[in-house]
Amino acid sequence: MQWVWDQTHRFRMRPDYTADELDDTFQVHVSEFLRRKYGEVAFPIPISDLRDLLEKETKTLDLRTDSHNEGGQFEVLVEFQRGNMPVVRIASKPSLEATLENRLRVAFAHAYGHILLHDFLFQSEEGLWLSLFDHPPEPRLTIHRCRHESLTPLVDDDWMEWQAGFACGALLIPIDPLIALVREFRHSRDLDLAVLSDRSLDGATLIREVAERFQTSWNTAWIRLIQRKILSTADIRSLF
Questions:
Q1: Which one, 45, 72, 92, 231, has least CB within 10 Å?
Q2: Which residues contact 175 (CB under 8 A, 6 or more apart)?
């Protein structure tokens, strides 16, 4: 991780993580959690375990929040405050409808990404400098709202959302089992050296297998495979 200037002006400086750093961090966290609880690591991660992971890092986890009462549409709301654990609120619709379980899994994982990657900023001296004044005001509650389309973003228009979105994929679809699945898929189809496009039949089949294996939506699996350059949207060589 390195520090770079924060162009969004939330902070003076903000952390910049590589994809490998994020993959390693969240694979270690989820693997250690599953190993302590079950004595082994297996996927997909049960949604109850995703909730447990998140609850251990929060002061409050509210699954019945009406987003209209909190300043507009959002899927995840994270309240940061120096000296306290974060409060996470999930919009009521995905938490109350069983058919939206994959959406709730993404919400849990995205919020967990924000907490592990960003809460330390609000707990540090850097978190005091949320204004341009020489003498910053007392630490205040800082609310970060995440819309549904920003939970697993493909581009980094907002660094906090991109990092938490990448972390979401890294938590739900950890890199080592993902690579193992991809290699098995390629070998079984004699595609060891082929470049796979997300628009090809083989690419679409791989997306579906990843989604089924890790219990995610098709879109979450697609973004994860694109981010890690396992599938291409252009004529670029795959990492595998």
A1: 72
A2: 23, 24, 27, 228
